[in-house]
Design brief:
Elements: H1 2-5, H2 21-26, H3 37-40, H4 42-49, E1 51-57, E2 69-71, E3 77-79, E4 87-94, H5 99-113, E5 118-125, H6 136-140, E6 150-151, H7 160-166, E7 169-173, E8 185-189, E9 195-200, H8 204-222
């Protein structure tokens, strides 16, 4: 199959392995309470929250995605116009201890590995426990210097890109997949906007494999 053709993963070791499998299994309930848990136990924490994903399509007007605008964390506007021709990684990260920062750091790592093909955008979102702490941004996502990921203003389901991605027609996978704000949802959008893949709490290895499949499809189209 296609996975057999893919090269080994290039992500950092710290994003791909539990430090102590038995201990991680015992402590898995700490994944949203202990800021270090996702770094110690990325596989166990991911397994706790993952759901089967889905593939959606927008055949009528796939380019409408690139007409949308978002607001960066500093309040400035950004058009998705320049995402056309690249894979868009749109990560919706609940502002929960450890979870948000882990995925931000891991996606930033991916952004450097796939700097010629992937545009990562991070949408922090308030978790569904009703928390309205206005300091939640600073506490749970600390941007890195010279970041390649675009950190957006904390939002909700009214965010125009999120709203758009959630309303495309599912064609494969888990058609009953609900969007919830208690776990990370990461969309991979093909370079033309035609395919929208939705993953929930993916391991970094899975995310990288899916990016490679979309990359391969990009290359095939160009041949």
């Amino acid at each position: 199959g296609i996975f057999a053709m893919l090269p080994p993963t290039t992500l950092g070791f710290e994003f791909q392995h539990d430090s102590d499998t038995d201990q991680c299994a015992k402590d898995v309930d700490l994944c949203t309470r202990d800021a270090e848990m996702w770094y110690k136990c990325p596989i166990s924490c991911s397994q706790k929250f993952e759901k089967e994903g889905l593939m959606a399509e927008e055949r009528d007007d796939p380019e409408q995605l690139f007409l949308l605008e978002v607001t960066r964390s500093d309040g400035t506007s950004l058009s998705l116009e320049e995402n056309e021709g690249y894979l868009t990684l749109f990560a919706v990260l609940p502002l929960l201890p450890g979870m948000a920062q882990f995925y931000y750091d891991a996606i930033e790592h991916i952004a450097h590995v796939y700097k010629y093909t992937v545009v990562p955008m991070i949408l922090p979102i308030l978790p569904s426990d009703g928390s309205d702490d206005s300091n939640v941004d600073d506490e749970f996502i600390k941007p890195v210097p010279n970041a390649k990921s675009v950190l957006l203003k904390t939002g909700d389901t009214s965010n125009p890109v999120l709203k758009y991605l959630l309303t495309r027609k599912p064609v494969a996978g888990n058609h009953d997949l609900d969007f919830t704000t208690d776990r990370p949802t990461i969309f991979i959008v093909s370079h033309t906007g035609l395919y929208i893949e939705r993953t929930v709490a993916p391991t970094m290895e899975m995310l990288e494999r899916r990016i490679k499949v979309h990359e391969w499809a990009m290359t095939e189209k160009e041949l």
